[in-house]
Amino acid sequence: MLIHEDRLFPAEPGARTIARALYTHIKTLPLVSPHGHTQAAWFAKNEPFPDPAKLFVQPDHYVFRMLYSQGVSLEDLEIGQPELKDPRKVWRIFASHYYLFRGTPTRMWLDFAFHELFGLSERLSEATADLYFDTISAKLRAPEFLPRALYKRFNLEVLATTDSPLDSLADHKAIRDSNWKARILPTFRPDPVVDPEFDGFLDNIRLLGEQTGEDTAVWTGYLNALRIARARFHSLGCKATDHGHPTAQTADLSTAEATDLFRRILAGNAVAQQQELFRAQMLTEMAQMSLEDGLVMQIHPGSVRNHNRKLHQLYGRDVGADIPRPTNYVDALRPLLDRFGNERNLTIILFTLDESTYSRELAPLAGHYPCLRLGPPWWFSDSPEGMLRFREQATETAGFYNTVGFNDDTRAFLSIPARHDVARRMDCAFLAKLVAEHRLAEDEAFDVAHALAYDLVKQAYRL
Amino acid sequence: MLIHEDRLFPAEPGARTIARALYTHIKTLPLVSPHGHTQAAWFAKNEPFPDPAKLFVQPDHYVFRMLYSQGVSLEDLEIGQPELKDPRKVWRIFASHYYLFRGTPTRMWLDFAFHELFGLSERLSEATADLYFDTISAKLRAPEFLPRALYKRFNLEVLATTDSPLDSLADHKAIRDSNWKARILPTFRPDPVVDPEFDGFLDNIRLLGEQTGEDTAVWTGYLNALRIARARFHSLGCKATDHGHPTAQTADLSTAEATDLFRRILAGNAVAQQQELFRAQMLTEMAQMSLEDGLVMQIHPGSVRNHNRKLHQLYGRDVGADIPRPTNYVDALRPLLDRFGNERNLTIILFTLDESTYSRELAPLAGHYPCLRLGPPWWFSDSPEGMLRFREQATETAGFYNTVGFNDDTRAFLSIPARHDVARRMDCAFLAKLVAEHRLAEDEAFDVAHALAYDLVKQAYRL
Amino acid sequence: MLIHEDRLFPAEPGARTIARALYTHIKTLPLVSPHGHTQAAWFAKNEPFPDPAKLFVQPDHYVFRMLYSQGVSLEDLEIGQPELKDPRKVWRIFASHYYLFRGTPTRMWLDFAFHELFGLSERLSEATADLYFDTISAKLRAPEFLPRALYKRFNLEVLATTDSPLDSLADHKAIRDSNWKARILPTFRPDPVVDPEFDGFLDNIRLLGEQTGEDTAVWTGYLNALRIARARFHSLGCKATDHGHPTAQTADLSTAEATDLFRRILAGNAVAQQQELFRAQMLTEMAQMSLEDGLVMQIHPGSVRNHNRKLHQLYGRDVGADIPRPTNYVDALRPLLDRFGNERNLTIILFTLDESTYSRELAPLAGHYPCLRLGPPWWFSDSPEGMLRFREQATETAGFYNTVGFNDDTRAFLSIPARHDVARRMDCAFLAKLVAEHRLAEDEAFDVAHALAYDLVKQAYRL
Question: Cβ of A364 and B386 within 8 Å?
Fold first, then answer.
């Protein structure tokens, strides 16, 4: 068997029994996925997923970055190719390097999918590569493996995508207008039109003006255009915005200062400091708009994007070289919090890639400001150990109820059940430890487990 | 039962048995509380404590910040009101939100007090709010709940308060002159007269001059005044000073430079950098004076005070919005250590709110310099997990004997036994793990447990 | 018994059984020590080691810094004296303070050596000081305690020293030319000739020119001289370089810029920023040369050397006051990685003293760039808990195979088996936890344990 029914539970038998009981209580709850990177087109078109290599290896830079780190070439993996010439060969390379993932969450997610979805029970390796390729390929063509069937099988209740303000959302409309009962929601991610360093930023601003009928060459028109774009998302069920800035810096400029800064930015000759200030101001503007339209705000700072210059030049964005850097929240968020920190009708969910901020900054902030909540550990931190560190370091000051449940943040649709399963098991493991050490009563642990798996995410994202 | 006799001990039966044995060995040792924020007036006047809301909710910003973070208004909690209009209503709000504290140390402390002091055994909730209110209110009027009776019941041996150099210490004198046998000691906290950003700083300096008969308008007079104030504290049993600076920065200016800087500071037009330099210099001056008069020096940097601008404006200091920021010790302390680092007759206790410094900076510093000791995890870090992280990350380099036992750092007198109990249990849990993993012999663990609970704090604070 | 056969294994019986089985599988594997500070002269001359005080106390600043931190004077320990006047007295001081090491790795290493090498079974204390002194002194004179005999007894397969480019390597030559079959390898540590702040830097540059016959007064001659020195090391079996810089900063200057910078440096009036830039550039130059000659590059930034000014003045370098500071890798390494990051024939091993970088920067970097590997936790972090933190925080993103096994990094030859033993046990403890929690199959854990103990270090250092 690739996966064990007691996986991730504490080894100590007493605590394990408690963890198992808690998990049994919540394991059939629907999955709520409020933040991720699946594609609405899959569900609009409902076509079969492609072959195993195209499905599991090529789109997932957390899979191929590990292979790359050990000397496998991206050419051999056909990264960046729209069509794979030899998917079986790519799969074999992956299979023969599968041992590299030992001890990583990627390994747990993949084994879960191989076992639960495809019924495979022998470990993936060079020897079983073809068995895997053939088994998975065959199943992917069956009706029960079509995107909509899997959505149902996965027991999904909500699935959010992440979308540019310039996106037509045609696929979301198509889903809405179909007779399929499912909740696939867009998320408003304005980076392309609020980050002056984004590729094609000036063109994006012009396009935003065209799409909204506003004059985005002036500050007020630009803000209006963003409001109109948000309203369009809102009408298709959007519940949240998402902001992937290099830092958590916010600003609170006067209208005159902001107008002037926007003019410089549009002139295209702003220096780095002004670009940073503009992003900072835009977080505060977005908070203002969230207060108006009720969209929940997600801020996830601290990644150096495209760190590997050569790969970025060859392959473009998102080829696996995002590297976290230290992130300050306590000073950076102050301008925004000075204006909106005490608003009870605003929800801002903070994420981090810098775990040293859990106990030092994030838990104290979320344990005080009414508008703040803590997003789950993610990206490089959504491992079993990472989840435990989050609970251990955040709970003591922020409690459980200033957190917002789990999100899978994934492009890999087939890994969604596995990711939620790991998160639920780790929360049960953490709670079981508290119960076993008499730090929490067992009946309360059942309540909390339910909240962490289901209630908190629905409340936080207003679902 | 609200609390279990084996709470906080490891779940694994072998380690639990060891932890229990260690704890039994130390649980009846007297409590030594060398750093805290109780009020000498309680013991001087020995009047009954007020109602439950006024006692447990209103003064404790670590209680009401959690409620506030979840949308409870401070108006409804009557925060900042000298007299509560409706304490029972405040208590009911608190009770109905008590579930928010699940998994936090606050919950453990409160349950301990409810159970051990007030004999309550049902959990606090909306349903039991009135039962709690009535039970506690009745008991607080009984003689055995007067401050002096509780001091004895708590098995306190020493209790230190924290006081401004401008404080008359009248209550401390009254206690000394009474026939009550107890050790309530003042602590010299000079922030009001050494931090140029402190509210009323210039007035404070003038007042210090008047009280000491020195000309505090000049550098040498100012230093003399501080010496005189320290001597006054010393005569009332004071053993330590306490310094709550934004950073750990120290300086070692020449007399000419210091004289000039002091003149600028008094002129009231110093910029932020000069204010920081002044605080930095004053830490070094305080170390010099400690070498002279033997007062132990406590430095606890790294908190952004009054982070929430609106609440600070409405309610003043200490309404729950102190947020830690990253703190550097290795460079910041160097000027002071260059002068006094090798002094064996000086004791400087370092605290932190930035746990990333435990293994990186604090343990290496304390494991080398004769004058340095490490204070316990506190403030946001005095949770069971926080205490474990401290021991795990500090012991390997600094050992046990460069630490100074526990302090409760609390305004909440009734929580003192609970806080010491948690600390003692966690130290026993940590030691039990070392014994169970054959990293420490059991007889040595008994010695260490005793030292951590009692001996080290008495040595470090020269009690 | 001083040491227990199950030491460091998890207390939970199931996990302990797995850990014991894993350890049994690897405990007899040869020790590979690719990075350390033993002296080739010991093996060239093969003379008896001196008395216990000279062997265990005087050379090991991680022993005497603990004593110093608790008020023992360095004079009493005769630190810095070439010959000890009263080694028994020094030993007695050490013995009577041995309790200070409770809970530290130093204690485990020493107990291991006392028990395994010298057959001592009573604990070291004031009472047993003389027994220890006499027993150890007697054994050290026996032939089986000569350096070469111990090398064999320790089951060492490779032992690397650390050497200045100016070192004659006469002892390494003598070993090579002897008929003794052992592998004692030099390591190229160019700090004395690439760090402008190194004592005697300008003299060192001149000496390097004389030794290599190159004109080190010009940039190209200086680089050639370094190439020649590396080749000389290479010819004596050297496999790696080692770089102990204050920061991880790298640079990629043009030849004209580098030439100009070198000229300023040699003029002796460069400011701190230029000195830092020069070190930064030299890391990139060293990477270029490693690509040419195949030497593995070890970078270990982040220590403030000689933090204690007074002790540095009195005793010189390496008297125990190296204190870590925060270290940034993600921005600092970028210039080097922009040039060489994607090279599969280059190996750069990154070390840290700032554990907050494990999950935030180091694991993401090593889990992506083909040239990067992670060195083991060391220096202040090679404790059982420190090793666990490394595995917990690095494995999830970098896996096991981007790490390079253990190195002992020690001057204390007699502690080498103990240090490897602790590392092996902790890796088995970590793996046992993964197996017990069904996160890794048992057969895979055996493979990984073998790799961590033996295979990875040989691969990484090209042995």
Answer: no
Decide if B385 touches C, using CB distance below 8 A.
no
DSSP assignment of A355-402 equals TTHIIIIIHHHHTT-TTEEEPPP-GGG-SHHHHHHHHHHHHHHHTTTT
SS3 B337: helix
* CA distance, residue A332 to nearest chain B CA (Å): 11
pLDDT(B317) > 90: no
Residue the block writes with tokens 């699935």: A159
pLDDT at C376: 98
β pairing state of B303-304 and B296-299 = unpaired
Beta strands C303-304; C323-324: pairing state: antiparallel
Let me know whether B370 and B393 are in one domain.
yes
DSSP letter at B253 equals: -
B-chain CB neighbours of C101 within 8 Å are 399
The single residue listed with the structure tokens 């343990």 is B363
Tokens representing B388 are 């474990």
C213 and C105 in a single domain? The answer is no
| pLDDT tens sequence across A341-353 | 999 999 999 999 9
In Å, the largest CA–CA distance within chain C is: 67
Alpha helices in C350-453 (DSSP H): 357, 363-366, 384-398, 416-436, 442-450
**pLDDT tens digits, one per residue of C364-410:** 999 999 999 999 999 999 999 999 999 999 999 999 999 999 999 99
H or E, element range at B62: helix B61-69
In one letter, which amino acid is A448?
A: V
- Quick one: closest CA in C to B17, which residue? C11
Name the neighbours of A, counting chains with at least 3 Cβ pairs within 8 A: B, C
Which whole-number Å values give the CA distances from A374 to A243, A456, A457, in the listed order?
15, 11, 11
CB-CB neighbours of B36 under 10 Å: 19
Contacts with C, B 343-372, CB within 8 Å: 344, 356, 359-361, 363-370, 372
Q: Hey, of C110, C311, C323, which one would you mutate to test binding to chain B, going by the most B CBs within 10 A of its CB?
A: C323
Dump pLDDT digits (tens) for B131-179: 999 999 999 999 999 999 999 999 999 999 999 999 999 999 999 999 9
Q: With CB atoms and an 8 Å threshold, state whether C356 touches A353.
A: no
**CATH number assigned to the domain comprising residue C102:** 1.10.2020.10
Find the CATH number of the domain harbouring A352.
3.20.20.140
Can you give the residue range of the structural domain that contains C268? 13-48+144-460
Q: What are phi and psi of B444, to 5 degrees?
A: -70, -35
Give the closest of C6, C100, C356 to B399, CB-based: C100
Q: Which residues pair with B163 in a beta bridge?
A: B188
Residues 432-461 of A with CB under 8 A from B: 433-434, 436-441, 444, 447-448
- Give the SS3 label for residue C362: helix
At a CB cut-off of 8 Å and minimum separation 6, what does B124 contact? B95, B98, B110, B111, B114, B132
**Whole-model pTM?**
0.97
How large is the ipTM?
A: 0.97
> Which of C110, C143, C176 finishes a domain?
C143
* DSSP β-bridge partners for residue A297: A241, A348
